[in-house]
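Tutorial sheet, problem 5. The three components below are modelled jointly, 110 residues in total.
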Amino acid sequence: MDYKGVYSLARSIPKGRVSTYGEIALALGNAGLSRAVGNALNKNRSMEVPCHRVVRSDGFVGGFARGAGRKAEILTGEGIEVDKKSGRIKDFERVFFSLWRGSLKAEHRG
DNA sequence: CTAATGACCATTA
DNA sequence: ATAATGGCCATTA
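Model answer (structure tokens):
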């Protein structure tokens, strides 16, 4: 598993935006890596890698080494609204950032 | 090597 | 909209 690639892509996510495990996997060349990507980010624990900006494709924040609640709080601090009750991201399609084409539908109408 | 687990994704009912 | 099922890859025991 090329962790370096995962971390590099994760770093590519700008503040105030979120991407998905599947996107990273797809950018690496294998969409099936989605699960492995999560493992890689989990193992990381480096502050230089904004793993908190990587969420599930469904719009849920997903898991986090420090707990999903912590992840949601960090995202909220970056301007991304998260519903603590359901653990879902508000305006997910709006804050979504595509790694392989630098955002596609996210910028379709500003 | 086999078996089980995980920060997932897509399909189907 | 929610709930349940199958598939995928890598790591760990």
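Marking note: Strands of chain A lie at 19-20, 54-55, 82-83, 88-89. Full credit if you identified this.
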